[in-house]
Amino acid sequence: MIQSFSPRNMRWSVVLTILLLAAMVVTACAPTAPVAEEAVPAGEEEKAAPAAAEEAMPEEEAMPEVSPHQAPQWQEMVAAGELPPLEERLPANPKVLEPLNSIGEYGGTMRHPLLGSWSSRLYSFMGNENLVNWTPNWDGLVPNVAESWDVSDDSTEFTFHLREGIKWSDGEPFTADDIMFWYNDIVLNEDLTPQVPNWLIVNDEVVTVEKIDDFTIKFTFAAPYGLFLQRLATPNGSDLVEFPEHYVKQFHADYNTDTLDQMVEESGQPSWVELLQSKTGSRANNGAGWTNPDLPVIYAWRITEPAGGDVARAVTERNPYYWKVDTEGNQLPYIDRIEWEFLQDPEVLLLRTLNGEVEFMNYYANALQNKAVLFDNMEQGDYHFFDQIRDQAVTVALHLNWNTENEALREAFRNKDFRIALSHAINRQEIIDTVFVSQGIPYQIAPKPTSEFYNETLATQYTEYDVDKANEILDGLYPDKDANGIRLGPDGNPIQFDMIVDATRFPAWIDVLELVEIYWEDVGIDMNIAGISGELLTERREANDYDATAGWSDGGLATVLNPGGFLVPMGAGSTWAPAWGAWYQPGNFGGEIEEPPEDVKRQMELYDQVKATADLDLQRELMNEIIDIAIDRFWHIGVSLDMGQYGVVKNNYHNVPDAMPESWNYPDPFPTNTSTYWIEQ
User: Fold this and answer.
1) What is the pLDDT of residue 118?
2) Separation CA 554–CA 51 (nearest Å)
3) Averaging pLDDT over each range in 460-474, 571-585, 634-648, which range is the top one?
4) Which of 124, 178, 308, 655 is deepest in the core (most CB within 10 A)?
């Protein structure tokens, strides 16, 4: 028996939010009744002839009626014959979005400054156009590119029925062939994908994807995959819709045997692989899609001024072929364009926000220590707050690299007692009071109290501030010190290491580390803060070129979807053990892969079982066993519980919710239907 999901039939293993899909009503013009021929009176032939000739002359072609349910710029272009009519640009069954508060008005430019160069914020605002999407409240799934789907009873087969008539931003049709190109020519091409992503593998077998017809795709796994639909709603699922076959083929060696060598030479790229990757790719990760304005997309806005390099800004503008409408049939998006300015100083971003020069801001300047000054300036800046319900477990995660290439540090870092001592040496309450304006409690990196996977032991172990205990432990491990009071490690040298951190985007992390640096020096450990750009941070992490790092802790709420945040090493993103994570999920890791110990491999096996089952009780049982191993390992060190954040939006912006989830797996704010945001002029 096949379980189906469609707007009419929503049997599903978890409770999903029901989306009401409004059908577009097409009214056909009534045919003109035939006119009977009349005899010409005698003597009137000559008079009738010119009249007949005049009637026979072709009439001027009537101007097509221009639909008012589209942006004024498109109405003008349709009237001028420069753009197909709206009904030809929309699919047969457009995706209907119900605006949160009101039907919008077309127009306006959103100013959305960022810190650094290009940013994943472009993706999370408009790029999560997957087969399925999260509901705005993150409590279920809704159809998107796929208007319905069927799931076999054993959760091994997933059949998706694509929305017929979706077009790329250049007007070419989006069909099953585009997804098959991604599968056959990207995923299964060993030059482009040396290791198939773990989320496409079950029981050590890669998924099989087949085209049923132009608008039907079937995924078949070797064993049940209970989390597949949820995984498709995350940034992983965006890969399927990011490779327009008609455009990308020209850069692929299997298709272009005539001019590809010349294109590679002219581009300056080492090979066709790098050339293709510079033209398209995972926009959620490497950002290539944001640097190429020629790349067709299915987003609400398309790049017209590219990001990348040293550019000061990027611009995205409305896509004439966007395939979503509001409940009155108006084509979305409402906003004309978005200007993304790339700043280098967080204080400049804060000042711009205070001055009312930022229309929407949900990252970087929204630190807790800025909230008071932003609150006091609300009236003058003409903005208000919205709440962020964050997936981050802690304010700052401190990761000692168990796979560092420094053998002496590796030995020290892998010693559980060493990590326990460093944890006891941290005065978390002082950090909370000083950096986070007394918001939060001491907390290790663990699921949050509101998570069904909250575990008090994992969350609170070794959080007591006790310098005497820290010194007692370290005296038993490394009692000898140099002239500066720094303990000598296993190789006889002072225990010294750099903690690399994104200094551009998150100044609060630097503030925390400056205190941690003092705490650890007081117990004889020399940690130095190495503040670098976010781009360099990513490069060094992927190359395993670091000893320790500070950063995110995704999975505080979406623990099942993101155990690699702090429970199980999964890829280079598990920055406490990236070489072990890469053994399980290689991804972009450029260092030397290492086979993990048996208990870590057991965690990975358990998560494979979590992926495979749709039984929620069994998922919980398996996840709790993973957590038990994490408790024993005590992987890393947390500071304080993340208490949530806030965003800033101008008062003339509408349909922005008062609160929204924040997570990489819920790429906010996209699931809140950003194409329905509108600006009151």
Assistant:
1) 63
2) 80
3) 460-474
4) 178
CATH assignment at residue 175: 3.40.190.10
Are residues 411 and 367 located together in one domain of the fold? Answer: no
* The pair of three-digit structure tokens given for residue 638, joined into one six-digit string: 């947390």
Residues 359 and 477 in one domain: no
Angstrom distance (rounded) from CA 92 to CA 8: 17
Choose among 661, 640, 650: nearest CA to 387.
661
For residues 675 and 126, give the distance between their C-alpha atoms in angstroms, rounded to a whole number. Answer: 8
Q: What share of the chain is helix, strand, coil (3-state, %, to 5)?
A: 30, 20, 50
Cross-strand partners of 201? 206
Q: What is the pLDDT at residue 102? A: 98
In this predicted model, what pLDDT tens digit does every residue of 486-536 receive, in sequence order? 999 999 999 999 999 998 878 889 999 999 999 999 999 999 999 998 889
Structural domain count, the chain: 2
pLDDT in tens, 245-301: 999 999 999 999 999 999 999 999 999 999 999 998 766 655 677 889 999 999 999
Direct distance between the N- and C-terminal alpha carbons of the chain, in angstroms, rounded to an integer: 54
CB neighbour list of residue 124: distance below 8 Å, 6 or more residues apart: 667, 668, 669, 670
Domain residue limits at 295: 109-244+280-382+652-679
H/E run at residue 181: helix 176-181
Residues 313 and 422 in one domain: no
Residue 142: its H or E element: strand 141-143
DSSP letters spanning 586-628: -TT--S---PPPHHHHHHHHHHHHHHH---HHHHHHHHHHHHH
452 and 586 housed in the same domain? yes
**Statement to judge: residues 454 and 554 lie in one domain:** yes
Specify whether 674 is located in the same domain as 590. no
**CA separation for the pair 565, 557 (Å, rounded):** 11
pLDDT of residue 328: 98
Name the one residue in this structure whose structure tokens are 């300047």: 365
pTM (2 d.p.): 0.85
CA-based torsion, 38, 39, 41, 46: positive or negative: positive
Same domain, 556 and 617: yes
d(CA 98, CA 328): 9
